[in-house]
Amino acid sequence: MIDLKLLQKDFDGMSAKLSRKKVDISLIADLKNKNDALKIAKTEFETLQALQNTMSKEFGIYKKEGKDVSELKAKVDANKINIATALEKQREAQEELEALVMAVPNIPDDNVPDGTDENDNVEIKKVLTPKEFSFTPKEHWELAEQNGWIDFERGVKLATSRFSVSFGMGAKLERALINFMLNFNSKRGFAEVSVPAIVNRNALKGTGQLPKFEDDLYKIDGQELFLIPTAEVPVTNLFADEILEESQLPIKMTAYTPCFRKEAGAAGRDTRGMIRQHQFHKVELVALSKPETSDEVFDEMVACASDILTALELPHRLVILCTGDLGFSAARTVDIEVWLPGQNTYREISSISNTRDFQARRAKIRFKDGKQNTMVHTLNGSALAVGRTLVAIMENCQNEDGSITIPKVLEPYLN
RNA sequence: GGACAGUUGGGAGAGCGGUUGAAUCUACUACCUUGGAAAGGUAGCGUAGGGUAACCUACCGGGGGUUCGAAUCCCCCACUGUCCA
Question: If you count Cβ atoms within 10 Å of the first and of the last residue's Cβ in chain A, which end, N or C, has fewer?
């Protein structure tokens, strides 16, 4: 959630920044008007309420002293009607404002490049050089089937399209990768947590998936519960509604969870293979930090994810997302794209975001900043998407006969 | 699935329908005391919004109701605990 106080103070500055993210100026103006309207409605209600409170107290005193209350009661009854209308007005204003503000995305950092889509993202650096193949490298689905690692048809049989089943070394590698990544992240100071894969509406509001993106989520029928699209949701919300001690920060966590996405709007994209599945494994990094150190923590997270790929000997590049490609909650995002020789392109394998205080304000995660309470900064990033890592290993480590040479760092995890 | 009990401030734990945002204990912070500490004393100590300020408003699991007035009474829901099937 954006800071409404700041909007009031610096409307022009804020709307200029938000318009970089394609937010309609008229919507921001509307937001400010609604906020002002709410303030007026609130003041009106509170004045009436204060009067009512005073009279009610008098009423009690009158009764005690045995005085006649009929005149006072008439006044109080009359005021009661006014209060009811004022309250109703305030409630309406509140609801209108909330509906609007919950749908406004985060403000991009000043140094995020302008752009309309992923083509305007800016490469920061490349790590490791893709190796030359003396043959035409195959795509991962071909390798996966040839090695008997992944069965796409049986996934469809059990569920529906975009589900798959891993067998043998494919299944083992998934497990190995999860363990390897969790250990790697732990060594970098991210404490391991294990969280529910089902969360309530409130948690999803806290991190920004709701109310705007309900169509992307799997909802449990008849219950206000959803399958998580990412561990970011439960892990970030661990500290919702809490006021942390300054000494606790930064809190750095890592968690493995399955992730579930409807992939609404992705029809026809990546239908083949396991790039885009409805259910996938992911190891996530989440951090809460003081505002002044969140950039530092962000860099640590990017380095952590990138170093995992380096350890796996997978060539990749870092890309900073432009304003048009930035997610709803993010102020700044760096994507890590891994090289896929079969597809002859770099594909996203990790996305690391600093949401500043956007999620913290929604989820009410604060810390004691001297005498006052201040919103923390929340950060999240994949380290890494497991299925896509497996894809990258298959394509990068393939031999001419279709066999795959497993990266050395994984050996301890496969015995 | 059924019955009963509970949900109050960081923790523990009071609270008759009226001046209670809430006793008390504890924790915490500052100061006094001390050579230093302990003990003791004094003061402060929930969150959010509004106001230059005095101060005002809201919040006692969530939602609704009764009442001039609700932490307190009624209804619904959620959660926790105990017992039963």
Answer: C
